[in-house]
């Protein structure tokens, strides 16, 4: 596995950086856009990219907070960092974020050593954005982990034209039961959408080092994610 950073031009001017992890060997590989949590392109997100590269994908994680402040890289370990993260979450423009994800997808499709197939995977805020990516861009397949606020934008669901998988934490403190019920009602009948609920799990159960990390549930979700991408990005 090798890692580097690239610069991507935004469609409305300016540019932003992205972390790129590549698998060993020279065979062309599908690409996956990794969509950050509210902590920026931090060690956890770089670790996701490295994991995907180890599984044979080219992973690229764009800095979606660059319009607010470039290079955000914080953790979930202190109250001050949580306060900063929620401030960034509140200031984030999701429409412009989708434009930046689409710019990243287009670059990823043409990167040397890729096949042209591109998926997306996101966590928390990124899980929400992965849903929107499925509905608003020509991505080939998308996965969202414990996306927040999807129930508020179910009007976008008719735009889903490619496979989408959502991992839902049953006890998610940010996605209450009524929100989960709306997601099931709004998306459950779509044959392109797969919903997995993890009993007893709270938000960020797959974030290594997080307060709610659960290895068994994370391993199951990650195995499902890899199988999903191997099927739909082949």
From TrEMBL:
InterPro entries: AB_hydrolase_fold, Dienelactn_hydro, Dienelactone_hydrolase-like. Residues 16-232 form the Dienelactone hydrolase domain. It comes from the Bacteria. GO terms for molecular function: hydrolase activity. Pfam families: DLH. SUPFAM superfamilies: alpha/beta-Hydrolases. This is Carboxymethylenebutenolidase.
